[in-house]
């Protein structure tokens, strides 16, 4: 009998730490980031743009959540325990303007993706820096990545360096290549139609 927690077309795998071994293209472009010089810029349609150091980011309240992780390729890892900062805390800090409808996530390797601000808030997205009480490995997005429930993994941007609030959706790396803008795992929304 199929596990009711699995979205359509997904099969469970057991170990989260094998992701990067099964995706050699990720490690080809993996950035080398140093917490002493790393910064998270939060810009765009906000009243209070900020540039946060790692130490400043760690002053935000910590949250812990269990979120299943689903890859558009058809595999899922269930019960992932992520530790990080609720995205809504960032929103409270920068105070988006009324024009801000979307959020673009820029990464140190040049990758980008965007989601609606509503999705990020409704689904309790987090900026994760730990997985199962361990600092993220480089291959899993060290030092900081987005985790949003119910979206395929390509929306869970790794190696974050900028969060930009925008009036219009900015088309990201995989979306430019035909992947879905919404990436809703429960609607099996993998590709643009």
Q: What's the number of domains?
A: 1
CATH topology (fold) name: Sulfite Oxidase, Chain A, domain 2
CATH 4th-level superfamily: Oxidoreductase, molybdopterin-binding domain
Number of strands: 11
Largest pleated sheet: 6 strands, mixed
Principal-axis shape equals globular
Query: What CATH first level would be assigned?
Result: Alpha Beta
The chain-level mean pLDDT equals: 92
Radius of gyration: 16 Å
Question: What is the helical fraction, as a range of percent?
Answer: 10-25%
Q: Classify the secondary structure makeup into a structural class.
A: mainly beta
- Please mark out the parts with pLDDT under 50 across 5 or more consecutive residues, or reply none: none
- In DSSP terms (H or I, runs of 4 or more residues), the helix count works out at 4
- Termini separation: 30 Å
CATH architectural name: Alpha-Beta Complex
SSE string, helix = H, strand = E?
A: EHEEHEEHEEHEEEE
The amount of beta strand, in percent, is 25-35%
